[in-house]
Amino acid sequence: MEETSISPNILKIFFKNLGIEFLLSIILLVILSVLLSTTSLNENVINPSIIFISAFSILFGSFLSSKKIKTKGIIIGAIQGIIYMLILYLISSFSSMNFSIGTESITMILIGVVCGALGGIIGVNIK
């Protein structure tokens, strides 16, 4: 039986890229807010844009992590997507003081897992 251990270097890469995911999300959300306030862009694009920004950020961050770690991209990416969405859920729940889990929350978690796994697969296979 093969023993699996997580080295401090892997954790460092993992959390560094998780930070990059949130930084990218913040930058893209600021751009979205500027566009919403300076153009005649319809407010109906807010929710789909937030989903896209989160998905893209997770995909990018898990790609970077798995490219550096070079193994188990699907697992690394999926875990990174789950952690990103868990942190996002906690932040939004504390800000609104609403801790309910509905279909939107479950959908976001699934999107996070899928985009993370996809980013991990791409990162492991890019040379």
What's the short version?
This protein is an all-alpha fold and 127 residues long. The chain has helices spanning 8-38, 46-69, 73-96, 103-125. 26% of the residues are buried.
Question: Can you tell me about this structure?
Answer:
This protein is an all-alpha fold. The chain has a domain at 47-127. The chain has four helices and no strands. It has helices spanning 8-38, 46-69, 73-96, 103-125. The protein is globular.
Question: What is this structure's SSE topology?
Answer:
Layout: H1 8-38, H2 46-69, H3 73-96, H4 103-125
Proportion in β-strands: under 5%
Tally of DSSP helical segments: 4
Q: Which stretches of 5+ consecutive residues score pLDDT under 50?
A: none
Number of DSSP strands? Answer: 0
Q: Report the helical percentage.
A: over 70%
**Helix/strand structural class:** mainly alpha
Averaged pLDDT: 90
Rg, rounded, reads: 16 Å
The main sheet comes to:
none
N→C terminal distance: 30 Å
